[in-house]
Protein 1
Amino acid sequence: MAIPERPRSLRTALTPTRELAALRRHLDTLSKIALLLLESGDEQTWVEVLRLLVETTEASHCCLFLDTSAPDGSPAARLAATWSAAETSWLANFGGFRVLFYDRVPNLSDRLRVGMVFSATAAEFAEEERALFSPAGIGSVLCIPLLVKGEMIGFLGLFAVAPERHWEATDVEVLCTVANELSLALVRRQTESALKASEARLKALVGVTEDVVVEYDGAQTVHQIWTENPLVRALLPARPTGGLLSDVLPEEMASALVAVARDVLRGVNRHAEFTLHTAAGPRLFLGRMQRLPGEEGDTPHIVALLRDVTDLREEEARRKIMVDTLNLLDEAIIDLDPAGNLQAASAAWHRLCGPMGAAEHSLGSLLQYIQADDHQQVLATLDALVSGEKKLATLRFRMLRPGSEQLWVECRLLAVPGPEGRVVSLRGILRDVTAMYLQERRIRQLALHDALTQLPNRILFEEHLQQGIARASRNGSKLALGFIDLDHFKHINDTLGHKAGDTVLLTLSRRLAAVLRESDVLSRWGGDEFVVLLGDSSDEEDFRQVARRLCEAARQPIDIEGIQTRLTLSVGFAVYPDDAEDAETLTSLADHTMFHAKNMGRNNVQFFREIQGTVLDRENVLLQTRLAQAIQERQLQIFYQPVVDASTGRILSLEALARWHDDHDGWVPPDVFIPMAEHLGLIHELGEQVFEHALDRLRVWRQAGHEVKVAVNLSRAQLFAPNFVERLTGMIADQGLSPTDIILEITESVALLDVSYESRRLQELADSGFELAIDDFGTGYSGLAQLHQMPVRRLKVDASFTTRLHTEDGQRIVQAIVQMAQALRLETVVEGVENAEDARYLMQLGVRQMQGQLFGDPMPAGVCDMLLARQAAQRS
């Protein structure tokens, strides 16, 4: 805002006392006016401001004029507010002051428009000014322009009756400041009015369209909601703004807006689609999102325009149905009587059935064009339509076409009722679906059969199993489910190659299928595992005979490139309903029994009921099932056990350990559920979950300033999974960490199974920056030569040795291990340290890093947070 220029002719000389009193009076007035204009900008406030100015300056009258235009377009000023020191304002009876035309007072207008103060007495009035002010008894005038960016929007006028009133300089300074404040207030009022008008227009627009407009920010706080949609308004609280999306909006709407918020704030165009359950039923909404730039210091907002597109989608669906129906006109159209005789047919019919339908007058019965095997289903469909059981029917059948391949036709028939309601005709649309049928059959074959052996795969076999159980339940008979594992098949793949392995599997599948009964089902379960379903028997001895034939068929030699190969099988059976009454439990028991057969030395058949400790085995199978569910639903917990510097008590690293609390059995020991996870093939998923949790916690600890490492155990399945190192380093980089922050622990038995192969993967991990440790050292079969080849930096002595430190032999063994590690320049970590006496002995041997009950049991991450924070506080 610009400050008006003060005229030089104003009187400025005052005595010090008067000048001080005037200054105090003006400052007090300015303070009051500033508060008034901050609180409100309405006409009543303007009147109060003018009253204060009259009292402060001792003028007779004070007026506020705002620029406007006369009906003819000429510039003018409209009286917006006035105050008079007299009891009755003279302005009330002076019409000339309601609108002041600038062209009638050019001297006043010119000075104000250039930003100058206009001050004059009666003796100084120009002719035009005298004609305006003298009839009203005005002797002195002081006018201050209201300026916005150098442009006048009105002026403030003070009038005195005294003909020779001279205005003090402080009066003018006050008036100029007030004029500036008024200008600001007017601009603010105009802005607020424009915003209210825009909001009113938006509400009107939203009300007309029944759309929903929601403004919210990245913190999910709702700032505005506009809608006149009665269904949506009924779901909103009385005060829908200021709360979180999840608290204000219906769940479906809030979830959809939250899901796209992050992308929209990044400038990515996203749409939201959700179904809102209202009193009128489910309504489909489609939302368009727009990012609004925030004001300085504020975060950007998002405006979501949500439109109910239910009716539009339904209309689109109706149009699509109509289009699909019209598209059918390209197919053959026939008209049948209730008996199934052709009454009429389109030209496409004759092309469809070939020479048989060449003459329209010889149409005859529909059945004469259809293969005999399909007559029954066609007649049944016709009867259902004619009887009124169905109004519309779809069926497929094969048409007779002499001299050509089999033709599959899809027919849609519609029952047409007569005036009395009885079906008088049947109208149908037929199309050639031969290519589609063959493709579907091929897809079904691929989806439900093994690509190598063409046997039913797991999906199709499970259907056969369910059907077999239902049939056995109805007939009161038994069925047997057997898992078949090919012994030492990995050796064939490794020595003769995968092609030879495929030959073995294909030959074996054919031999096994050849000895089965017609009612039996053989399936390839995966890899070198087959599953067989033996049904329709009341005597378990029948199952045993088939099992013996299967084993004998497998023992027949297979010639592979001149090499005679003989195979053996490990087979496990579970019988319905003796062992289990549902498919899932029966499958688990059979699988468990097969593994028992392998553990019994392979090349044998076992039945579940013959396994020793049947009850315990059943509980074990159920425990495996619950473990698989717990891993899939990420229900296992991750605890951490510290590794400390025994000389200082400082935590050096934390080992991540999986713990499982089963709802049925409580806490299950790791030495129970870890082998189960390996047996179930879920050890990889379990290891991934432990690693992800460990990385997340390590990031939190590092952000808190704790310089600790995290140790994670690796299984063989993880260690040799494809692209394991790349995936591992990628996960670490995503958390902002480095491989040097991680200790990877590999058990001695895993690390040293095949040194020439394992060492390559271990070297790859070491080259990436990971610190490698041999866990449970001393329980395997390693030697100095093997350890020397491994790129490991530390040995973790198994707790079984620590428990024997109270004996002389135990001390000698641990001392030998420590000396060997020192000779190989490896760090030594001793596990299972439970008392101070063992810790002192180990420190005498030079061991500094220890782990065990003495320093802390495995504990939740939250407890580790407190330990690390306490350690940091003690160090500081």
Protein 2
Amino acid sequence: MLEFAEAQFTERETLFVEVILPLAIAKNYTYRVPFEMNDAVMVGKRVVVQFGKSKLYTAIIAATGKLAPEKYQAKYVIELLDDRPVVTGEQLRFWQWMSEYYMCTLGEVMNAALPSALKLASETKIVLNKDFEVDRSVLHDKEFLIVEALDIQPELTVSDIVKLLGQKTVMPILKSLFEKNVINISEEVSERYKPRTRSFITLNPVYQNPDNLKELFGILEKRAPRQADAVLAYIKLARHQKSISKTELIEESGAGAASIKSLEEKEVFIIEEKNVSRLFFEEEELYSNFELSEKQNVALNEVKEHFNKMDVVLLHGVTSSGKTQIYIRIIEEIINSGRQVLYLLPEIALTTHIIERLRVYFGASIGIYHSRFNDNERVEVWQKVITKEYKVLLGARSAVFLPFNDLGLIIVDEEHETSYKQFDPAPRYNARDAAIFLANMHKGKVLLGSATPSFESYYNARIHKYGLVELNERYGGVKLPEIEVVSIGLETKQKTMQSHFSSVLMADINMALEKKEQVILFQNRRGYAPLLICKICAYTPKCINCDVSLTYHKSSGKLHCHYCGYKDDSPKICPACGSTHLEYKGFGTEKIEDDLAMLLPDARLARMDLDTTRSRNSLQTILNNLEEKKIDILVGTQMVAKGLDFSDVTVIGIINADSLLKFPDYRANERSYQMLAQVSGRAGRRGKQGKVVIQTYDPAHRVIRQVIENDYKGLYFTEMEERRSFKYPPFYRIINLDIKHKDPEIVHNQSVYLANELRKQFDDRVIGPQPPMVSRIRNYYIQTIMLKFEKDGVSINKVKGVIRDIITQFQTTRLSKGSIVQPDVDPY
């Protein structure tokens, strides 16, 4: 027996796994696999490992092998968490590409890609799920102990739980509690998902009997005619649809909410609150039998023809041309062939109508994924993508990280949007460009859609790298909105301005209100006043952490920094000279809303900006109220330009176009055109020609004329000449290096040194260093080095390799102490 045991022991295989840790470290780390796990370890599964002196992390196995690391002794894997891989081989390839292309670490990509619940670490905070009642008698001893501890202390870290249980292997226990909905990851708690509810009405079955119904009408017509109208309206609606919402019945009958409540109290109506998807209403079924117009059919066939030869097609269709309907027809073909579809949107919460329509066609086979869903939901979607339960995935930029098996098509809607670019933290990727690589990996196709394409995409289409399909007519033959430009300077001289509103805009708003139509007003700045200034000494309050002035917000009564969140009380006396002559300069959405309330006291107003849409349901509430005509005038920032499609919005007011046009950026004209055209496109989308009023100090500005004439090509050709001359994309690639330090002199010296090292390799392709527009954020001073490289004749991969080596060499010097170097590839 002893000889056999010794023989068995000598045959044991020692395995090692290379893992990706959720940390910004340059290389993957190798761990030794306990013998009992040998048969279970697999690429893509999660393991719990110790990194550093005592910290535990959830890591992803990137490779398995038999070679031990040469330079250090491998620690043992503590625990294996999964029965099957949670990350696919294709995803790991995608992560690797993203790490190399965007010059970041695999750990940073992993952090961006995985939902928080799949990457628990020592410092991750755990809280009880207050929305879930659990029978504690079914919990195991250790699970019960954790829950009891959370009753006493509402928040515990994973490290706390390790100490509490006296063991390192706590991740499987936490995983079990998470799957039972007993606990939540605390970073998700502030944005808990709350189901959207609607009140639905059914008639008491007693009144299905014709005699009883006749008797009821006899009583109501004499005593409560409004209630009789409500019952009559219900019967009328019930002939055509299965479920009737309370809002719909009030609109149809003209009876008030009080009449409906009385009928409920009399037990004539039964009212039930139902959870309804944010993505689908039963009444939207009317969309399901649409037919494409002749122009749409031509466009659809052209897209298919291009897909026979090319992998990427750009659909350039004017606002309200029916691009979504074309998408739906293409999606149907792809999923009928058994493949998956990813539909990317720039602002998931603002594209309600697209989501609703898609849900009508694809039902339970469509999944939604974005950061406003809580961790439970995101993990559930993740698992359903792996098992191919979802055929269509709808999401914001982070959806490119989902574990697709067989991706046949990616649609990038509004592909020009800057929201597709991740600015902080790393990876600083562009979801549009990442989608093209991802589709290529899966041998799938990409359809880019926009009324105002990015110049890069349009350029690629014109040189036949992408297919190009153009749709120049609105669906149903609706005319593009009439655009009128108003000179703010002229109206100010004539004293016809009312606050920030010209006489033309006020007349159009009043006319719309008289016709019971709706208005959207656009001002690309939130808050009440961007500047508080002393009239005597010109003192302006500034953020203590950032190099920016503070913005006054009337709702909080405080001065806010829009970069770091710092807040301060608004002074009544100038702290510099003691003067009481302080005044607010400029205006934001809050001021516009405030002034409108005084000018139009009977109008129902709402505001849509970052301040009013922070909570999970606030944005949806605003959109619902706009759809249900509870709002007459909506004031908003650029949020109002993205995806809003309401039949009764007939007037759009752009309060000050100059804030867009005068921005110091080579893309200013392109972005201004896109923003103005997109905002204008919200008007008159369903049968009525809309009206757009653009207020500006420069009515003759070229871009404004091009917006009026819908002259995208004129803008494109003019801007391309300038970009070619000054070496900007799409003719050149740009890589920015931001160097940050808490001392301004040190960061200057560091950036000069780094720029000189780069010039030794790249000569005049290196520009700077120079401070950006905001040169200090969160107490870090910033210097930026810009590198420009030709697209032809230069290997960008070799260039990035050289830049990495120079940064690494710089970081080994004493000069680099305390600095942060952040590469940003394709920064704009």
Protein 3
Amino acid sequence: MDIWRGQVEDVLAGLGTGRDGLGVAEAARRLATFGRNRVEARPRQLLALRFAREFTHFFAIILWLAAALALIAHRFDPGQGMGALAAAIVGVIFVNGCFSFWQEYRAERAIEALAALLPQRALVCRDGALETVLAQDLVPGDVIVLEAGDNVPADCRVIEAQGLRVNAATVTGESRPVGRGAEPVEAARAEDARNLLLAGTSVVAGHARAVVFATGMHTEFGRIAHLSQHTEERPSPLALEIARLSRLVALAATALGAVFFFVGRAIGVPFWDSALFAIAIIVANVPEGLMPTVTLSLAMATQRMARRNALVRHLPAVEALGATTVICTDKTGTLTENRMRVVSLLAGGRERTPRPAGAEGANGAGVTAELAGWLAVAAGCHSLRPDADVEGGYAGDPMEVALVECATAWGVRESGRRVGELPFETGRNRMSVAVEGDGEVWLLCKGAPEVVVPRCVLQRASDGGTVAVDADAVRSALDAMARRGLRVIALARRRLDIGETVADDRAKDEAERDLILEGLAGIEDPPRPDVREAVARCREAGIRVIMVTGDYPATAVAIGREIGLTGEAPRVLRGEDVARMNAAQLALALDSPEVICARVTAEHKLRVVQALQRRGDVVAVTGDGVNDAPALRAADIGIAMGRGGTDVAKEAADMVLLDDHFATIVSAIEEGRAVFDNLRKFLTYILTSNIPELVPCLVFVLLRVPLPLTVIQILAVDLGTDMLPALALGAEPPSPGLMQRPPRPRSARLVDGALVARAYLFLGVLESAASLAVFFGVLAAGGWVRGEGLGRLDPLYLEATTACLATIVVMQVANLFLCRNARQAAWPLGLGANRLLLWGLGFELVLIAAIVYLPVGNAIFGTAPLDATTWIWMLPLALAMVALEEGRKAWLRRGAQRGQPEN
């Protein structure tokens, strides 16, 4: 039998305990049997193994093989710079591995956050006496005492309660505090049982005794922790693309090396010379600077997002944001302010708007006779406790705080001495207090209209007097408020007779009689001011927004209508609907144009996310509670609330909103889309230089001429002159109209045919032609003729290879501006929005100048100083590339205007 269905005495007997709790010896025995009351972490890999894993992913393996091949080449043919290249590649692997390990080490601490959320101590009955023990020492059968403000340390069944209300949002997602009592209940699951207190929740009002029936991993809290631990994280789209690019690079480099080896053998090149040359080709085609450029570009994007109040915890999540097609958002605290507020006040038979909080002159002026009673009940009938550290000065039930704040805005505050109280209890759904002042004692009562209104015989009239209760008018006003998704509270009072008391429990029903209905209060958790605009931007960007909340359907639908998320009749999926459907049915249900998921649990939310992913969606999920952790971990991008969220949610998420605003998600998605565009920009830039690095090797083998570019000079481009300009492209701001485009499909490639064709077959070919033209021009000017051999240290050869290297750099300077946009002209794009471009340009020019003119640069890279004439040869070639590329862009723009495909 479920523990919430039984009578208290039967539950105690079943747990082998009594109302006075366990004995010390029995508690010790059970502790040895059941273990500590804490969430256990699943075994983790040793730090050394996790560190080693960062150096064994596929792209790292490619770099390791490239370094090994470079060392082999250095062993058999020293003096070609292969040793320095091998050392540089190993350095790149080490820097990237250390950085990635540090990110992962900081990110994988969700289980510590789960344990830290539980309270450290609890008040427990042992041998009939109250004592304070460590929460981790609680065992099933312990009887604990809880007061307002306490966190619940384990799953418990209430055995005694007075005015008990708990905030269960971190476990169930329900935004409103709920009452708890000791009576048996019929409920389908533990989360719905009104006589259970679940670990991780907190008491907001009243006090209780409860018997512990589950501890540690056997609690609902522990079950969710287990679900979170065993929910596999999906690799981000960027991780999948990097893996794909790694395979392509490995295949292309190996194929080219093999081709050059066999071509060399076919034309009579000795075996080892052909092998070493093939190794050089393979190493030259591995973009050593790709991973550090990607990593640093993502890191800069996280800094930009942080300035927009989005803290990214996992670097690949930056790019994943840009592919988001669906946002599954929580309601409370994300779409709404997570702060109850009275928005409708019915008094004297008419509805009015409450006075804004802090309104000037709120000193009681304007309080009419028909309002006085309403405000007196709102200000005086509550179970709040003063707390100077909380905004508003009170801590407790947010609904009661809202009523007190509403009264305070009119200048009405609690007055008189409280002489009695009938606390809120499950089943009563109301509370009353007796307040003495000015020689009179008033009973102030508030609660659910269905229980308060029937106890009223009169209602306040518009002139301040009283008339008989008009049940139809009250019901009509009540229905109107409910249709708006408001929580409606009825407020009533009566003057007590001389000597009448409300302290005796037997007098509860008798005291709360013959009341005067002062009016109704409509309370809501209002939407954030900027949410409607943010939802509209999502719709414009082709992103679906689905509200997934533990709150009531009516409340969720009302909020959805108010923020423009849905129309009048959205598809509402309750938690039981999600549980009942199979995968295909759920996918079809989620395909509805407007969907709201309400009253969902952790498992339901996880199923919704997985169903959307099976449909091919890239899913972003928001959450703030323990119950959200599994879905946050399973989503393509998990987004936790920074202010109102639990540590569990933050540690399970990829991104944390520092301001808890839904609008911040939209800004982050815009940055994510910009990151994808920027990755394509700098990949085009980096890959373009691979062709002028490769073609000289082709010319060397096929035409039997001096090698135009040495391996160490290739390294100077890949890890030197190209690095900072590529990072500058990675820092480009979002382009205009970015959020008017639909999300890119999950199948979209970071490196596709169009990018390869532009980089390799157009820009790369132009750079190759220019660099070889200058190389042969310098040789011809120096009197070289084909067939004449040149030594490695021949001054003419050093000058010619330097000219080839410098031409590639000059062409890349022009390419830096061409790559800022694949279709728009380069010159209208100003530099003010991306000053890193100027730094990148300056760094590139200073570095090539150091390589060409400094003795240390000449010694390391095998270069020689160039005269001014050689530099002048390069400029028209760079301008020609600019003209040809801008002509290509103009042709594409005209094709787009005529409605032709833009490929």
